[in-house]
Design goal:
alpha+beta; Arc Repressor Mutant, subunit A; 3 domains; five-stranded mixed β-sheet; about 10% strand
């Protein structure tokens, strides 16, 4: 377990949380092979019974730990999703093939070639359409293709790798998914910050074609560090952008006051109506952002400290402990006391 944090300290920037549906997705490769995932969950500090609760959340640290556990215990960097394992070192082999490439286009072609030597179920394809370029997934096994999370996992992993190779920035212009819209699609916003299209012919992450000529600017030393942090880089959601990001940052910096809509709008130099309109255009609301941040802080504090519930309620801007406990149960499906015991 993590060492308990001091009770009078709230982290200024709490970690994000992850819905339990994404934990189930991470285990879907294991379970497709008839294996029980409970031991992996416990090793990552996640209570197996939490997976039965659609409203449950885990910390990003736990989610990253589960990814590491699966890679180590399965001896497979692709987590059991593919017919042939990706033995430890497979990612290193692919990334290393790109280091001497003159530009991103050549790097993608080299990585796709090495990936093809390792796997039969799916191929990586460099695609170009007008002023856009992209990485597409060409599946050769229908059973493997049916798992939507595999599409998401591969697109996310290789997009992050390509972005890192060219210095850290490769903004996607859109993302196509070759499967129907899943019920958890709202949670994809922080993973793929671009317009999505479902039921596409090929799962593809697109970016500006001109970026294919960007030079590769990484070396062996940087690669070693990147792969050391690889699992976290793969699962780490993006922070909110636009007005949503500004509101979230303002709320973080204002703790423990938790300003209301009017005061927050004033701090952002706009009217409350304008702020509401901007947030609605980003498919969210002030209250949703506020509750999301309070939920993340609450989950983090319950996992990493022994702070009394009454004190935590005050930190989160609730009038009393009862109001906090009611809200937390609505957020996660579990009272905070029981949630803390499960985490322990």
């Amino acid at each position: 377990m993590d060492r308990p944090a001091p009770e009078d300290r709230t982290p200024p920037t709490p970690p994000l949380t992850v819905g339990v549906v994404f934990v189930r997705n991470l285990l879907s490769g294991v379970r497709s092979k008839g294996l029980d995932g409970d031991a992996f969950l416990r090793e990552a500090g996640i209570a197996p019974e939490a997976l039965a609760d659609d409203d449950a959340h885990v910390t990003l640290q736990q989610y990253g730990d589960l990814l590491r556990v699966l890679m180590v215990r399965l001896d497979d960097e692709t987590l059991g999703f593919l017919t042939r394992k990706s033995k430890p070192g497979s990612s290193l082999l692919q990334a290393r093939s790109a280091l001497g490439a003159p530009n991103l286009e050549t790097a993608i072609r080299r990585i796709a070639h090495v990936f093809g030597l390792l796997h039969d179920d799916v191929s990586l394809r460099l695609l170009q359409s007008g002023d856009e370029g992209g990485l597409g997934l060409e599946f050769h096994d229908a059973a493997v293709q049916r798992n939507p999370f595999l599409h998401e996992f591969l697109l996310r992993a290789y997009w992050r790798l390509f972005a890192w190779l060219v210095g850290g920035e490769l903004p996607p212009t859109r993302v196509d998914f070759a499967f129907p819209r899943p019920h958890y699609s709202a949670g994809l916003g922080r993973i793929f910050p671009a317009p999505w299209r479902f039921d596409a012919a090929v799962s593809t992450i697109w970016f500006e074609a001109r970026r294919l000529q960007m030079p590769i600017c990484r070396d062996e030393a940087a690669l070693a560090q990147y792969l050391k942090e690889g699992p976290v880089q793969i699962v780490l959601p993006r922070r909110d952008h636009g007005i949503s990001g500004r509101v979230r940052l303002h709320l973080q910096r204002s703790q423990p006051q938790w300003p209301d809509l009017e005061r927050s709008a004033q701090a952002l130099n706009m009217s409350a109506a304008t702020l509401q309109r901007h947030l609605a255009a980003e498919s969210t609301s002030f209250q949703a952002l506020k509750d999301q941040l309070r939920r993340e802080i609450a989950i983090y504090r319950l996992h990493t400290s022994r702070v009394p519930l009454a004190k935590l309620a005050a930190e989160l801007g609730f009038a009393d402990s009862s109001s906090f406990q009611h809200a937390f149960k609505a957020w996660t499906g579990s009272p905070p006391g029981r949630y803390r015991r499960s985490a322990s």
